[in-house]
Amino acid sequence: MQVYRGLDIGTAKPTVAERAVVPHHLVDVADPSEEWSAMRHQAAARAAVAGIEARGRRALLVGGTGLYLQAVVDDLRFPGEDPDLRAELDAWTAEPGGVAAAYDELRRRDPDAAEKVDPHNARRIVRALEVIRLTGKRFSSFGPGIDQFGPTAFPVQMVGVWVPRDVLNARIATRFAAMRDAGLVDEVLGLLDGSPLSRTASQAIGYKEIIGAITDDGSLDDAIDTAVRRTRSFARRQRMWFRRDPRITWLGATDNPCAVLPAVLATWSS
RNA sequence: GGCCGGGUAGCUCAGUCGGCAGAGCACACGCCUGAAAAGCGUGGGGUCGACGGAUCGACGCCGUCCCCGGCCA
To answer: Among positive and negative, which fits the CA dihedral A241, A224, A27, A82?
Structure first.
């Protein structure tokens, strides 16, 4: 979400001062009305890494979105997309019994892919069918899969920071309160004056809830509360995603995660 | 004080003719290849306000009481 210009406070974007000390890439590279995607992120991030390495420097990939990280470091191939076909499939699954019918087709044309997607998950079923109909090839034939943790596309040292649950929850609540104090609501009001947010940008935690509160005349306290819960839920999914990756070295922090910095640097140097 | 409506999961509420206590959200656990800060699955949770009664059997029917909201005085 930090790729979007104007989404500063709620995405905890690095400050101008911080960026003056350490160059940050893929920050402020898209307008909030633009869509962002795993494929777009893969291309942009790999280009940034290549540029950094070409200058003899070392890239530090930071972030919590598992699919996006793997899209950069692993052999993930994203077959094309077709908006018309996508719309047709979306309409199909919106009909009564449509999701089950679509899942039947997926099971018939790509049993391996059907095995990995839940029969109720319309979004994933639609995407798999879109690829199959578009390319004529099985969805599962693209790349080794996200559960294959082989050698990375380029040398990468992966480190995860593990924080106790109660500390994490407290930090999330504190963080949102600080964002609100820093003017998050005003920032959202400013965004509402511009072009409508894209589908992807409008999902940003905090922004989505505050926009909802403003347009529906709801409670800002409730919006912040929902955003806090959604952040916890996101953190749980991050935990699930990264936990299964055997290449990650986990470092535990009891309170302040910054305490593990020396250990992170030691791992990095090796 | 009188009349009416309500009291069921942490929250908001369904519950048909009396026949095994339900949903959404929350919470916990988990899944994942162009929406991923997205999407999806599984699970734990109940003195059905309290007490008494009729009934083989009550969240439901009868009685008394308590609590909340509205209207009237």
So the answer is: positive
> Predicted confidence band at A256 (pLDDT cuts at 50, 70, 90)?
confident
Check if residue A144 sits with its Cβ under 7 angstroms from strand B.
yes
Can you tell me which residue has the tokens 């106790």? A164
Tell me which nucleotides of strand B come within 7 A of a protein CB: 26-41
Higher pLDDT, A105 or A95: A105
Q: Which of A60, A66, A50, A11 is nearest to A188 (CA)?
A: A11
A138 touches strand B (CB under 7 A): no
A171 touches strand B (CB under 7 A): no
Find the nucleotide nearest A208 (Cα to C1′): B37
Residues of chain A with pLDDT > 70, as a percent, come to 99
Long-range pairs for A57-61: beta carbons < 8 A, 24 or more residues apart: A59/A25, A61/A156
Which is nearest to A5 in space by CA: A25, A46, A33? Answer: A33
For the segment 39-98 of chain A, residues whose CB is within 7 A of strand B: 39-40, 64-68, 76-81, 90
A158 phi and psi angles, rounded to 5 deg: -105, 130
Residue A269: the pLDDT is 65
pLDDT over 70 at A11, yes or no: yes
**ipTM of the modeled complex:** 0.92
